[in-house]
Design brief:
By secondary structure, this protein is α+β, with helices and mostly antiparallel strands. The protein has a single domain, classed as Glutaredoxin, CATH 3.40.30.10. Helices cover 31% and strands 21% of the residues. It has four helices and six strands. A two-stranded parallel sheet has the order 1-2. Strand 5 and strand 6 form a beta hairpin. The longest helix is centred in the C-terminal third of the chain and has 11 residues. The two termini are 21 Å apart.
Amino acid sequence: MNNQDFENIDTQVLGISCDSKPAQTAFSGSLGSIPYPLLADFYPHGHVSKLFGVFNEKTGTPIRAVIIINKEGKVVFSKSYSAAGDLDTKDILKEIKNLC
């Protein structure tokens, strides 16, 4: 993912998982770093993921999803993905541009 493409259209990308900050740091480091902030939905476990309807109670983890929130704080797009490889950043950029 080229984070600059998102920054060029005044968009902030955030990652969120139910992992602790130390686990996220290790994960990010194993990838050579991630160009956007990672947020920990660690305690209470999955609280934010549950609010957005993307928490899988069976596995105790969030479903891989993209949620676009506009500057007024309104969810304007949400899509879940089975696997990371299914997510195409070009499609997400297109969705954001269509909202403008």
